[in-house]
Amino acid sequence: MRRLIAQLSLQGIGGGLVAPLCLVVSITVFSFLSAEELQVSNLKGLLGQMAPLAIIALGQLIVIITRGFDISVGSVAALAAVISVMCVNALGPIGFAMAPIVGLGCGLVNGVLIGRFRVQPVIATLGMLSVARGLVLAISGNQAVALEGDNPLSQLGYGSLAGIPISFLVTAALAIAVTVMLSRTRAGRRIHMLGSNPPGAELVGVSPARTLLFAYALTGLLAGIAALVLVGRAGAGLPTEGQGLELSTIAAAVIGGANLAGGVGKPVFVLIGALFIQSLNNGLTLAGISSFTQEIILGAVILGAGLADRAVRWITTSQRSRRGTDGAFPMDGGSCGGRPGPRRRWLRWQRHERRH
């Protein structure tokens, strides 16, 4: 088993083993506790319910790869939802465009503070959390802001296409877009390089300020998109929406194989991590467990999944040490295992960047 984990890790998928295993165990256990767990209607509902969590977790993954995190995403989503509903009531459906705009604006502020002014991510995003939550409570009067008339986003919240929830299809499309961005674009390569080795990335011309600005802006944009799903499901902008999403999205990303030390993460496994957390919440509710006990169990399971992920990474690291392989973008050491040396790989990447 240890050798199998190491082999998968060297192929770039070992870090995501924990999320699928946790998901399978969760569904199996709750299928014995509740007969409704494996019903088609429940599984469809699960896919629809996970959409806001999964969309924001994709943004969380991007900033985690850069060695940061964003604890303001839940409050930003609530602010975007309330402002967009107010604009729809005043201007019509075009007002929904305010949700991603508000999210993008909050992300840009975080990016400037962290990238340009070198404020620590926890301080910058904690400040944004407080500001966004205060603003949404102030402008809404701590009351739900309901849509006047029909809800144009009801299909996004509860509709389905070929039996698959539309919100899940949107989430899957966003996951594909994030995957392409991280693996096929210059911006994605720079995000990985900055997270893998910040000093080395600067040596080859990667701007930390611009890269971090892009990463946090994209995270805010995804929080704004998630706000549209929340409005579609609730039919209103709720000022208390998104509470707890900050930690849940970080947990989904970490369970899905993202490394808080930076440089590692795959969107597909983050989706599975989000699905696991949602299935855990759903299963505990179906089993009739109280909300207080649910919090305890959820925290304990997340801790256990984190320890399991750490064990997988320890096996991977020890195996790489024996083989003499190195990280994604190191700056020391020489050629090994038939691969070009680290300096040659960096120079090759630099030439590629200049040509494109």
Per DSSP E runs of 2 or more residues, the count of β-strands stands at 4
Number of helices: 16
Described by its quaternary structure, the protein is single chain
Determine Rg (CA atoms, Å): 21 Å
Strand content: under 5%
Mean pLDDT: 86
Shape descriptor reads globular
Global structural class? mainly alpha
Task: Note the main attributes of this structure.
about 350 residues, mainly alpha, 4 strands, globular
What would you say about this model in short?
The chain has 356 residues and is mostly helical.
Question: How would you characterize the overall build of this protein?
Answer:
The protein is mainly alpha-helical and 356 residues long. It has a domain at 51-279. The chain contains 16 helices and 4 strands. The strands form 2 sheets. A two-stranded antiparallel ribbon has the order 1-4. A hairpin with a 2-residue loop joins strand 2 and strand 3 (164-165). The chain is globular. Mean pLDDT is 86; it is low at 4-14 and 325-339.
